[in-house]
Structure prediction request, 307 residues.
Amino acid sequence: MDEILLPEGVKIGHAEDDYTGVTCILAAHAVGGVSVRGGAPGTRETDMLRADKSQGHVDAIVLSGGSAYGLEASCGVSEFLKERGIGYCVGDKVVPLVAQAILFDLIVPGEYLFPDKAMGRRAAENAQSSGVAFGNVGAGRGATVGKLLGFNCCHKSGIGAATLKFNDVFVTAVVAVNALGDVYDHRTGEIIAGARGADGKFVNAVECLTGGIFAAQAAAQMQKQSGTNTTIGCVITNAKLDKTHVNKLAEVAHDGLAMSIRPVHTDADGDTMFALSCGEKQLDYSIVAALGAEATAFAIENAVRGI
Prediction:
């Protein structure tokens, strides 16, 4: 599980400054899908990935900070791809198919610090097929978790990854974790990152919302938190899937969010997961789905460990 695997042609790159960042997944014209479960998403070109749309492939997935301002980053990725002739060809024109999701990390008072077109391009230029670093980089640069009692009580987060295999088929999850809720080790049930009280101990966000001693404070914060969180990511497999099953893979990736983040899919989060199929390996979809959910849970936990 330590080695992060990518299908042939797929590359991942990061770019960041001191406050925010971008992660670009160059998709090698993979079959793409998406599932948006959070109540406050910020996205680009997600509709083209849905199973009922005619376009079957995608050229890049972009994950970034910056809230809606950060959607500018994908323009830099599109420019990078256009210059290399990568995209959907229409006459003498090429149109790169780039989908994106953002998270909210605009927390510096009085400043609008977001990933722009130039940062998006740098992320694409930095993309590589192996040896990709994760942690406090890229889309995870400004990420935090456990904000139910406000930013003063939250925990630093980042972007994590994990790969699970079944014979010669693998699924890799890449997730930038900026959740309202706490992060759990899904195997033990232990909180590993989240809101802390004055004594430094985890206060347990779920208990706060269900009548704990911080219930009133949590309820007040929920009113202020709308749209200021969001977990975003992508699951990538070398299994050959059609567009319907790739969209189903994006859906079940949210099971991984539910295993490791509590509460999840709130109206204060815009949780969005993409999926990519780039390969010819054959495996029953149910096994691929199980790998995808579990890899997502591990990637979330890896995003907060050691940060």
